[in-house]
């Protein structure tokens, strides 16, 4: 079967999920400026409706413009059994990407675009489902790049070290309790 890829043919992008509606729940109003919102407090909140992210590892991509710098947004995933919140420091003029594990059974998503008063607009908001292998490799690579203990180690050695640490902490529960 010969099918061409085009922006109108979304069958190729089933793993890309974007909410269709951002419904304001609290401390949000439309700004006088076209396409902008006004956060009227320190806890503005949207309810995201439409395509929920697929369970498993997802790359959350967010781009927004705001009139203040140093803004931290947060996303809350709520299921019957638990609630998970992910903080996202937003960079001006760049897409912020964060690897997020979406638990099975998420029923509600809320998004706080900023933790201060001000105006903002959302240019891009999307979840991209990832294979577990790809997500694990990204996490290992980030650990190898950022943590001084693992810096410049090959990824298989990083994984081996993590497995050894996990095994030793299971053998000695007091070590795991001390780390918590």
UniProtKB/TrEMBL annotation:
<protein>
    <submittedName>
        <fullName>Uncharacterized protein</fullName>
    </submittedName>
</protein>
């Amino acid at each position: 079967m010969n099918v061409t890829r085009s922006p109108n043919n979304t069958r190729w992008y089933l793993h890309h999920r974007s909410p269709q509606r951002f419904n304001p729940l609290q401390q949000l109003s439309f700004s006088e400026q076209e396409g902008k919102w006004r956060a009227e407090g320190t806890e503005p909140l949207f309810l995201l409706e439409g395509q929920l992210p697929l369970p498993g590892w997802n790359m959350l991509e967010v781009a927004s413009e705001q009139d203040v710098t140093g803004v931290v947004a947060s996303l809350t995933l709520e299921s019957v059994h638990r609630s998970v919140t992910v903080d996202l420091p937003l960079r001006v003029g760049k897409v912020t990407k964060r690897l997020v594990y979406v638990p099975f059974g998420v029923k509600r998503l809320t998004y706080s675009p900023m933790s201060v008063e001000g105006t903002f607009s959302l240019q891009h908001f999307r979840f991209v489902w990832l294979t577990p292998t790809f997500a694990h490799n990204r996490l290992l690579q980030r650990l190898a790049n950022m943590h001084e203990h693992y810096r410049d180690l090959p990824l298989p050695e990083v994984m081996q070290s993590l497995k050894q640490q996990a095994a030793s902490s299971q053998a000695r529960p007091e070590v795991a309790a001390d780390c918590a």
